[in-house]
Automatic annotation (TrEMBL):
The chain crosses the membrane at residues 636-657. One of its GO terms (molecular function) is calcium ion binding. InterPro entries: EGF, EGF-like_Ca-bd_dom, EGF-type_Asp/Asn_hydroxyl_site, EGF_Ca-bd_CS, Fn3_PTPRU, Growth_fac_rcpt_cys_sf, NOTCH1_EGF-like, R-tyr_protein_phosphatases. Residues 26-65, 66-103, 116-153 form the EGF-like domain. PANTHER family: SUSHI DOMAIN-CONTAINING PROTEIN 1 (PTHR24051:SF5). This is Sushi domain-containing protein 1-like isoform X1.
Amino acid sequence: MDNRNRAMIVVFLLCATAETAAEGRSLDVCASCHFDATCNDLPYGSGKMCNCKYGFIGNGRTFCVDKDECQLRGICGPYSTCHNTRGSYYCTCLAGYSPSNNKDTFIPNDGTYCQDVDECRITGQCGEGGQCRNLNGSFSCSCQLGYEIHDGVEPFNPHRDKASCKLVDCGQPASGEDTVLLSVTGTSYGSVAVFDCDEGFVWRSGDRSSVCGADGRWRRLSMVCEEISCEEPVFKAHANMLWDGTSHMGSVVLYQCEDGYHTRSRRNSSVCAESGLWEDVDLWCEEISCGPPLTLPHTNLLWDGSGAPGSVLLYECVDGFYQEAGNNMSTCLLSGQWGEVSVQCKAKCGPAPFLPKSEVVWHNMSVVIHRCVSGHHSWRGGNVSVCGSSGEWQTATLRCIEIKPPVSHLCVLKEKCLRWRAEKYEEDTEDYKVTYVGSRDFQRSFHDRRKQFVSSKADQLELCLNLLPVTNYSISITAVSSRFTASITTSTSLPVPPAPAVYYREFETPVPTLRLRRSANTLDPISLYQVFVLPVEGIVMFDCSSPASSNPKIKSSAEYITAQFDVRHVGTEMNFTVGDGLDYGGFFNAPLENGRNYYIMLRAVSQWKSALKSSCVLWAEVRGTSYVLRVSSLSAAALIGLVAFFMMCGYSSSWFFKRTCHS
Ligand SMILES: *[C@@H]1O[C@H](CO)[C@@H](O)[C@H](O)[C@H]1NC(C)=O
Ligand SMILES: *[C@@H]1O[C@H](CO)[C@@H](O)[C@H](O)[C@H]1NC(C)=O
Ligand SMILES: *[C@@H]1O[C@H](CO)[C@@H](O)[C@H](O)[C@H]1NC(C)=O
Ligand SMILES: *[C@@H]1O[C@H](CO)[C@@H](O)[C@H](O)[C@H]1NC(C)=O
Ligand SMILES: *[C@@H]1O[C@H](CO)[C@@H](O)[C@H](O)[C@H]1NC(C)=O
Ligand SMILES: *[C@@H]1O[C@H](CO)[C@@H](O)[C@H](O)[C@H]1NC(C)=O
Ligand SMILES: *[C@@H]1O[C@H](CO)[C@@H](O)[C@H](O)[C@H]1NC(C)=O
């Protein structure tokens, strides 16, 4: 129920109430009013009257019927539709129009009317590429530039027609005569295709590009291309031309030298170039001639002097040479060069060279192999002689030398030293092992066995050994590299025996006890001590080397031996009392005479076979109590004598040597 209907119902209720209230007073006109009427006062209080309401027509009492406003033509204005309602009406607009009050419906009494709707305000109304045009109550579409109508005709209405706008497509541009497509930006309206002249053609006039038009077609290409063409090819002296007669770009002409002519040029063809010119060919056909022939060492050339192709050269070895290998013939080739020759001439060196103490094992004309004769050898050096290019033998370096033992000329030098010659190669170092064994007939238990090593580069060696005295040594030297051993014997001589340390004293008693100290020595088995008594009378002379075995009983005034000891029986210390009257080693220790002065000497003696060595020391001085002369003031002469003696002790007896060195 709309608002108007609701208002009418309210009016009706009010009237019903008014009628009820008036009933008691008089017959109420108003009560007889039609439902769709109102009760109005008449003018001047003349009563009341029923009138049909607005929108109704009737007498107000028995009938009020709806008035159809739409029957009044044009009530809603142009482009509208009128809609009647009970007691009223309203208007709507035709399609393509809308009420100017911006509502769906209107009643024209407020000035509202139907106005055209601009459908083109909504974008995309005509689809992609469509151009919208507004019409009274409608719109139409056409296609924009670059688009064309599809499935229909223009103008069209997309709500009504199937038609639509489609992008113009010119398709792939076609290249025209003598042109090639270089690039194209696309196939739609406005795309640009660029062309170039076909190969062998050159641009003359016109535009090189074409554009895709709105009609879907490429603009006609105005470009004009003209074919490239060269003139007649150039003539070359002494050359034949091979040419097919065409002169377009890329056409080739080939040049060939005539027979007997050749060229050093690598290129012998010319091509018609883009410039419309034949390429320049630097071609000279020259007469073929092989130049002067090669000279080869040690050869003579046999040649008729012609350098024409086919001419022949022959090389022969000169006198004194022979052809060892290779090809000795050469022909002049079409290339203008002599064919390869490789002849090798070798000198004839004559008979094999001679090397002292050698023999030839094998030989041919150029090689000789030598060998040392037996009993000779070569340390190093080549054993091959080769015939040199000069015609002389390059003789082998072999040097044949007699085979000798690695150790030779072994001899003894100065009793304790060895000398020998080494047999070895130049700077080589030889190692030697020297072993020596010493023995003594007088001392069976004695064995001196020792070893020593020597390394040397020397050709002659000397080696001194620490040999003990009075010993027979057997010495061997082994050259380690060859295990060769040479042997020799030597005997060492008897030396002066070592004197014991005596405690020198002066006594005033006729029975003095004397002391000595000594150290053991390897000469002990052949040594003895002798105690001498020298009575002091005038000048005393004492010869330490004299045998002095005189019997004291015979020579009472002269010196005598009073005691003798085998050294082996003397300890490291000994006390001896002179004049005790006892027998020592076969000598009588005679009592000393009172009142006489004596010197006591100690002599050490070593003796082996015919050799004898001795040394002496003054042991004591004995003063007789009755004697006035003091020994200390005795005489310088006595002491001089002693000194003289000691000098005499330096002599050595001769010994037999075996193979002593002779310089
Ligand atoms: C639309 O109607 C108006 C008024 O009636 C008129 O002036 C106008 O020319 C019409 N337009 C078209 C496109 O018919
Ligand atoms: C000339 O050149 C062509 C190709 O460049 C080659 O085939 C031909 O052998 C050449 N001719 C002569 C005679 O050198
Ligand atoms: C050339 O060499 C051949 C063997 O290769 C030989 O027989 C001929 O004698 C040689 N000619 C001369 C001239 O040396
Ligand atoms: C001689 O012999 C050597 C070595 O075998 C060899 O190289 C050479 O060619 C030979 N010489 C001759 C002329 O036979
Ligand atoms: C020649 O010397 C080589 C090496 O130096 C050796 O091998 C060869 O046996 C020697 N030939 C003769 C015959 O001595
Ligand atoms: C050394 O040898 C010789 C000969 O065999 C011999 O007479 C001598 O007594 C020996 N000498 C030693 C000190 O053994
Ligand atoms: C030698 O005599 C001294 C004293 O005069 C004594 O001390 C020593 O032991 C003695 N030596 C021997 C070997 O009798």
